[in-house]
Amino acid sequence: MALLFLIGVLLLAVAAGLVARALTLSSVRVTSQMRQIGSYGFTSSDTASRPERPLSRAAARLSSLAERIGRSAQGSGWRAPVSGTQLRGAGLYNVSSNTFQGYRVMLTAGIGLLIGLELIAGGALSFIGIVELLAAMALSWFGPALLVGTRAQRRMDRVDRDLPELIDLLIATIEAGLGFAGSLQLVADRFDGPLGDELRLTLREQSMGLSTERALGNLLERCETPSVRAFVRAVSQGESLGVSVGAMMRNLAAETRKRRRQAANEKVQKAPVKMLFPLVLMVFPALMIVLLYPALAQVLAELSSK
After folding, report:
1. How far apart are CA 83 and CA 37, in angstroms?
2. Taking a C-beta distance cutoff of 8 angstroms, is the pair 248, 238 a contact?
3. Which residues have C-beta within 8 Å of that of residue 224, sequence separation ≥ 6?
4. How far apart are CA 138 and CA 84, in angstroms?
5. Are 158 and 192 in contact (CB under 8 A)?
6. Which of 2, 22, 246, 280 is most buried, with most CB under 10 Å away?
7. Cα-atom radius of gyration of the chain, to the nearest Å?
8. How far apart are CA 244 and CA 88, in angstroms?
9. How confident is the prediction along the chain (306 residues), in pLDDT tens digits per residue?
10. Distance between CA atoms of 100 and 71, rounded to whole angstroms?
């Protein structure tokens, strides 16, 4: 009963969040763009004089409260907050580590309070109810961190998968006579997904005055993968030493594809081990029942007839 109540509360919260986001999508986009411009020292008198909407003010207060809670709830081990590298890898650039930690604490405490009150009001405060309460609180605590880690890993895998195609396009444009900055700006709009987002963010940082080396260093901080690290190192060395970037890119493309092939082979080698658990726990018991039940039933019938 408590588990069904928890599922209903989660679904209701997700539906309310989607409706609120759909109603305020345009204002959220405008606010996000103005926040990015303001972070570089530019302001707008029209935006500054315009009063904030109640939803934006409530969201800002909730975020501030979550940040204070997360700052006071620092810990180690399983209580440690999700790192900023994981949040940036998952694409959550506007959420700090303390804010995310505060949201986890608020979610766990809120769900624990709701389920506890429901158990007390329904008179079902038993051992099973306490176990369900603890399981729901554990899911509320570890679930968001697991989702962020999974999303960050998927984004980084996609960045590594798309990076060789980016290097090939850079080689073609650099050998055609363009510089590295012009080539990067030309090919950035042709990529979708995480790699395209990261490249466009890098170009935006360069247009705001950062050097190429610094912008690529920020790219490496956001996407800490071996392929991106090799790409940034090759470009930085080529720019500083005056070496031909095209030749270095060609060797880097071959190395990146070799690394991607090795990662694919590693996943293939792990597949039989991962398939062992569902086979032993799900497929083999059902197969044994289908194969052995007729013979066992016949033996029991023969024994009972005697």
Report:
1. 26
2. yes
3. 85, 89, 156
4. 22
5. no
6. 2
7. 27
8. 32
9. 555 655 666 666 665 665 556 555 545 454 554 454 444 443 333 333 334 444 467 778 888 888 888 888 777 777 788 888 888 888 888 888 888 888 888 888 888 888 888 878 877 677 888 888 888 888 888 988 899 889 988 888 888 888 888 888 888 888 787 777 788 888 887 777 888 888 888 888 888 888 878 888 888 888 888 888 888 888 887 777 766 677 777 888 888 888 888 888 888 888 888 888 888 888 888 888 888 888 888 888 888 876
10. 10
Q: Do 87 and 97 touch, CB atoms closer than 8 A?
A: yes
Residue in the block written with tokens 């766990």:
108
Helix (H, G, I), strand (E, B) or coil at 306: coil
Q: Is 42 helix (H, G, I), strand (E, B) or coil?
A: coil
How far apart, in whole angstroms, are the C-alpha atoms of residue 230 and residue 209? 24
Output the CA torsion 178→184→185→189 (10° steps): 130
Helix spans in the chain (H): 2-23, 25-39, 45-49, 54-72, 84-89, 97-122, 127-175, 180-188, 193-207, 212-222, 226-241, 245-278, 284-305
User: Is 0.70 topped by the overall pTM?
Assistant: no
How many residues in the chain? 306
Instruction: Give the C-alpha distances (Å, rounded to integers) separating 234 from 131, 206, 230, 254, 293.
Output: 54, 18, 6, 13, 65
Tokens of 122: 């329904």
- What is the C-alpha separation between 257 and 255, in angstroms, rounded? 6
Six-digit token pair at 137? 């609180």
Longest dimension (CA), the chain: 98
CA gap 86, 291 in Å, rounded: 48
The Cα–Cα gap between 105 and 141 comes to: 7
- Token pair for 17: 């969040």
